[in-house]
């Protein structure tokens, strides 16, 4: 008993030291600036008014567009920091605190799992500590912690782990014969924590799969209490069937593929390679090889293009078969495999999302880290020679320090956003997002000549893209000394160029600067010519409706309200994001143009 208590105090101290070391590791990355999606999702809170604070917060929290459910829990966490809107350090500091809190919950969760499996105290604590250390210090986690908007992923994981803690506590109590208390704990975990996880980010629904993986693997020998099958039917199987039915019969999962450069089949084939890349970067990461830009990742066109696709598909399918067949014989291995794939069941499968994001591994890699820790403990216990034991301990320690050092290098990049943007652009010359991100940072930091070099590079590497000339024009607006692109050459390009995601943002900025009279050296006629040519381009699909909206804004600014309303009418013939907002603008413009009957009729609809 005394030995067990000493071990608990020792590992508690080691865990506190681990949290302190992790804090020191990440501290240098807490400075910097908001980037990319941070601006869209967070900076609206700078407009909060103390006199209408509750209304402003409520409107912000329940008007989210980042996901299907709006992610109000995550937005609330941002809104509560409205007084820190100009202090990026404060936002990143909260992200770091959440990271450490999740690590604490993971450490606790793994201890409870191993105790339920009746593992001895030393084995339980060692494996829990090592698994948590690997999770905390892995360089693949850095962008999730320091990219402010990824707090959405963090909070979803936090509530998922809390839900798992409640579930395992319930399972433990049920094993002691306390049915009412046990079912209460398990149900709270699945329902309450699950709701919070889902409304932080939609993939909180994966809590169901994580519970199912635990039941199929590590917990398969634990006796099932009375009413257990009924409970699983209510809280696991039924929700799972509802989700499957939703994606099969309600959600149009193929609708997003028209704006992607890959099909559903190509996505699934490519993800097989990406999943293996995630595991490689978890266990054998390369220094400063991580980034949030992966749009240059080579798409698998078929099983042999590129050739690495076929081996990846074979490995994925084989491991899944092994995990299922050996789930009772080698439950730890099956747990690792099935946990990883459960974590990627939404974002790395059929949904028309971007192909590659490191934050998708935030919780998914835990299963493999747990299995690896179990393997190290097992090998150490069976090795007889002392020299081999010492070598194993030293090698493991060096590897853990190496992971920490690579994380330290990654964190250092987040401390200097300009250097980070330049480095990412150099490492990914065929990433349009990386190039435009670097160009934007150069422009924002008073270095337009360097920004122009990136746009010139993009025109060379992506000659079919539409947005680069628009970005160049916006650079000219901000810095008149930068010569604008030749109008005839630009219009000839727009007649046959391809659509891309940057076009809508670039045009919105261009029209906004004109409306706000910030760019007098680009005439209305020039902007109208650009919009007209793009509207006649049959390749422009994604941005078609936004072109009409921008043309409407241009007409409205020059008091041609009926023409502006007509542009909205044309735009609504196409799929339109924020249709209600666009129609509100149409009503307003009709009223301004004194077409009151039309405005009233549209308002009633």
UniProtKB/TrEMBL annotation:
Keywords annotated in UniProt: Membrane, Repeat, TPR repeat, Transmembrane, Transmembrane helix
InterPro entries: O-mannosyl-transferase_TMTC, TPR-like_helical_dom_sf
Source domain of life: Bacteria
PANTHER family from the UniProt entry: PROTEIN O-MANNOSYL-TRANSFERASE TMTC4, PTHR44227
Protein name: Tetratricopeptide repeat protein
TM regions (residue ranges): 93-113, 125-146, 152-170, 182-199, 205-222, 234-254, 303-326, 333-356, 362-383, 390-409
